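I have been asked to look over a protein record a colleague put together. Alongside the sequence sits a line of tokens, each denoting a local backbone shape. I have pasted the whole thing underneath without changing anything:
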Amino acid sequence: MAEVVRDTTNFPDECDYSFNDQHQLTHLKYDLAPHVLARLSRALPELQMRDGVIACSFEWRNHPECEKLKALAEGWARHHFGGGHGHILNINCDKLIGSDFHLLATMAMAGGRSERMPAAVKLMVWFFVFDNFMDEPALMGADVRASRDMVDAIISVFHHHEAEIEAEAEAVDAGMTMNDSATSNEDLYGSAIRVIQESARDWWDEMRHLGMSQRQQCRFVSVFKSYLEANTEQVAFRQLRQIPDLEMYKELRLHSIGWYVSSLTLEFALGLDLPNEIIEHPLLSALEMAAAFHIAFVNDIFSFRKELSDGDLMNLVPVLLWHNLGRSQHILRLRAVEPLVQKTVSEALGLVRELDEECVQLMAMIRAAVRGGNGEFGVLANEEAAVAVEMYLDGVSDWLSGNLQWHRISKRYVDSNMNNPSISIGI
């Protein structure tokens, strides 16, 4: 147990330490976030995770055409984000390519159809360019107005074809319209927004032309909007240097990690178009949520050192730490913060372990429902559905294991984990 002592840190006099009023709690988070960041940053050099096994019960594999897709990803990245475009986005294209983002697509969608994988790989590279731009405080990460312009510009890519999917329009938020200023904006962010927008139009047009159904397009636009809005809300927290409470963080992370967009991309890559009866089944819905959190928290564990060094508190580890401090009903003044951070990381690892077990159990329940032919499960209990669901479950398994394996080998996080080479996969 970490020793608790009083120190001489000067906290704002107007900061009320009561946790009984929501307004006071928000004010507290606003004022103390920089202090939490400073304490966490000091703890990082001493942090060890020698016993930190990140749980994943599924074997990873890679797409048989991974080398071909790697070359495609490199060429596409250089075309859209190299040269002057890279300068606009503050991106080193060689570093972007060296992070092997294509591998996340080829391992996570290892069973994808050859003709559909190029679009999926492009989307994955784009995801990380967008994520970098929205996360970086010096770029978009602390500017709510600019981030909303970015979101409007991306949404306009989908609605450029709105007439073609009018029959399914009720599945999409009718209020999604383009902010005209987004494409005419000549301020600091205007050119960067156009680069992101045009690269998004590339993979979206390709996905449509390769046979994505109108119903699936509407689903894609809907979940993509949720993904963009969650990222915008995270920008607001960064701008105010606030730490959300645990439940708020989980709500944001559920969508900001991009799993629901990725699961639809998985469907597309596998050549599936799951009917609503399957998608909305409680067992499938529960699996989707557990998978989303597993993928998000694995990312948080690998990236929190890097993000903290960049001044970013939107990560499970600092959120859990602050949650634990809040539950104690007072502010702990620690002489040594390392043991508390170590305990918090262990708690995060425990959450991933629980999610892994939940995914295993839910997949077993779904397979039993499908194979058993129990009429209680409706459309899941027929042969055609069984084939589609089995393919999809294999795909989710690939995503869980592929996500973890990619984090272990990608250069994107090597600097933040160089003192933790023994972070291991639990298979």
User: Anything to note?
Assistant: Residues 408 and 423 are 8 Å apart (CA to CA). The mean pLDDT is 76. The beta strands are 53-55, 424-426. The chain is about 65% helix and 0% strand.
